[in-house]
Structure formats: C-alpha cells, structure tokens
Design brief:
The protein has about 375 residues and is α+β, with helices and mostly antiparallel strands. Helix content is about 25%, strand content about 25%. This is Putative aminopeptidase FrvX.
Length: about 375
C-alpha cells in the first residue's frame, strides 16, 4: 500500500479585515509620482500597529515601531504602479501617450482607463482598428507610436475642457478578484502586494505582543518603477543597519518563458530567496535558516549584476547596508491581470515575521569567509 503523504493543512495569516483592505488598496490608483492617495490609505491601515509614521517629500510612507532605538531594521516594498502620461492631443480629439514606468504597449489596445485630472477622473479607452479593416498581408503590431486613447471627444478643445492636458497620468481600470480560491488577481500587485505583506507583519507583531530589541521601519517607497528613486531617498534619511526588501518575481511555468534564462519558479511553491551581489551573504543565510527552521517553503533565484529591485538602492547606500530580497512569485507581470498565490502571500508574511524575531540588537552581519 502506498504511503499517504502527511501534508499539513495551510493556515492563512490573512484575516477577512486584512483582505478587505488589500482589495481596496489594489483598486486604488497609485501611479509613479502620484502615489499619495494610496500611501494615505496604507498608513491609515498600518496606524494601529505602529508607534509613529511620516511621509517624505516625494511620498514614501514609513511606519515606525520603537523609533528611539539606535539599531534600525527596514522592511520595505514599493507602492507605485505602472501607468501612462498624456503626451499629445490631436486636432480631432485623440490622445497619444508615453510610458510612466514599464508599461506594456502590447496589452493596451481595448483596455479601459482613467485619466487623472484636476477635475477628477475622465474615462477613456485604448482604441484599435477592427479586424475587418486590417486586410494587409502584414498586420501592424501595437507600438508606442500607434496606440491611442479615445475619450469620446471630437476636438482638442473638447478634450482640454474636460481638464485633460499633456502630463495627465493614466491608469488602467481593472480591479481585484480572487480566482478559484487560489489566486489573487489584479493590476499593481507589483508591488502593492508587498506593501500589504509588510503591513501584515506589523499587525502580527502587535497582535502577538512581540517586543523587538531594535527600531523597525516599515517602508512603502515611491518611484521604484522608474529607477528605485524612492528607496534611494529614504535609505539616506533612515540610515538603517539592515534592510529586508520584498518585491515580485516571475512565475516561469506559463507559456513562452524560457526557464534556462529566467529560472524555474512557480506560484504556490513559496517565497523566493535571491542570490545577487547586492544581497548580503550572512543576512541571506539567516533568511534560509529561518525558513527551514519554521517549515516555510521557499525557492531560490540568481540575479546577474543587480536584482532590479529596491534591494540595490538600500544595499549601496550609507557605506553599505546588509540587505536581502524576499520575492513573491507572480504571473503576467506589468499586465492588468497579475496573479499571485494566496499561500505564497501568507508565507512571505511568515518568513519576514520570523526573521525579525531572529535579529538581535546590534546584530553583526559583517562578511566573514
């Protein structure tokens, strides 16, 4: 007789109230450079679990536990989502765009969007010629030069009367959902899922009455999508002793992704621990040992040269800050249907929480062979 696998039933750390916040937080627009409304919502959720908070000049939001402690540990995510800018308005009322972050031109046609103006949101769609009219031998693919917005206007003057001008930011309209009781789906899970997870760590610390021997800075940075800028600024302000960053990485099990170049990573198999020059060896070892000790499943990823995340900004600041990266596997990055596994979310939260409980006051991460 085959031996039955004795697999423990997964117990979620995410509460019903937490999930309600997560849904509202994902549905709230937070484009690069215009993150403030989302940051305000995030800090309001975080408020019961921290001692104090602040927002810097560019919108990075920080909650602090034990603010008077000299030894400082950062847990960090980034708050901004990809978006578009109005770049050119034609005489007949159509709008051409440029990227704000890594927006994908191939997914734009037929998407519904919100144009953010001083008069409020204006609805629009990315238009595209009907299949019946594309009769040439070689079809033109979507590109930055040919995707356009239609907001129902017939002239440039009519567009401008709605409050739309060059520089207005544009976000997609797609909203959060739970798929097959297994995946969270939505736009901007990269990386407001991270902001949610670090807030949940703060909640668990408070609810479990855990006292940390250091100052904990829960950081939700801005402007990651255009070059880690928010993390650069806040790292110099906080001057942390340790930084643990969480972001997303690619699930490579879906079609058209090469595992030889992208690695073998999957949603549902746990947090991803990264190996890269910016990832400090001893801190990374602590992550792995903590995961193994607490039976938290995890995966490994190698990054050439840089991680491409806020880890790099913290690591190379202030003369070198021991930094590590815990990534959340995600399908369909930079689309409106990004997908993350519910159990991975729980396990990232658990891993960060347990690692914090293993960091001592004045913990020495000095590199030693």
């Amino acid at each position: 007789m085959a031996k039955k696998e004795n697999k423990q039933k997964h117990v979620s750390v995410v509460t019903k109230k937490s999930l309600q916040f997560f849904e509202a937080y994902i549905n709230n627009p937070s484009p690069t450079g215009f993150e403030y409304p989302g940051q305000k919502m995030w800090l309001e959720y975080l408020k019961p679990y921290i001692d104090e908070s602040f927002i810097d000049n560019y919108g990075t939001a920080v909650g602090v536990i034990n603010p008077k402690a000299e030894f400082k540990v950062v847990i960090e995510a980034h708050a901004d989502e990809i978006s578009w800018f109005v770049n050119y308005i034609t005489s007949d009322g159509l709008i051409y765009v440029i990227r704000n972050g890594g927006s994908d031109h191939q997914i734009a046609p037929s998407k519904r969007v919100n144009i953010h103006t001083d008069n409020g949101l204006v609805k629009a769609v990315f238009g595209w010629p009907a299949i019946h009219t594309r009769s040439g031998e070689k079809e033109e693919a979507p590109a930055l030069k040919n995707i356009f917005l239609d907001c129902g206007c017939t002239s440039k003057d009519e567009v401008e009367k709605l409050g739309i001008h060059v520089g207005c930011v544009i976000t997609y309209e797609d909203e959060f959902m739970v798929l097959n009781n297994r995946y969270y789906v939505g736009r901007a899970l990269d990386n407001r899922a991270g902001g949610f997870m670090i807030a949940e760590v703060a909640r668990l610390l408070q609810e479990n009455k855990k006292k940390l021997p250091f100052g904990l800075y829960i950081v939700n940075s801005v402007q990651e999508e255009i070059g880690l800028r928010g993390a650069e600024m806040i790292a110099h302000r906080i001057k942390p002793n340790v930084a643990i960053v969480t972001d997303v990485t690619h699930d490579t099990t879906t079609p058209m992704i090469n595992k030889i170049t992208q690695g073998d990573l999957a949603c549902g198999k746990g947090p991803v621990v990264s190996y890269a020059p910016a990832v400090q060896t001893n801190l990374n070892r602590l992550l792995v040992e903590t995961a193994e000790k607490n039976d938290i499943p995890f995966q490994r990823q190698a990054s050439s040269r840089s991680t491409g995340t806020d880890t790099d900004a913290f690591a190379y600041s202030n003369g070198g800050v021991p930094s590590a990266l815990i990534s959340l596997p995600l399908r369909y990055m930079h689309t409106t249907v990004e997908m993350i596994h519910t159990e991975d979310v729980d396990n990232v939260i658990k891993l960060i929480y347990e690692v914090l409980l293993n960091i001592k006051k004045d913990h020495d991460f000095t590199y030693k062979k």
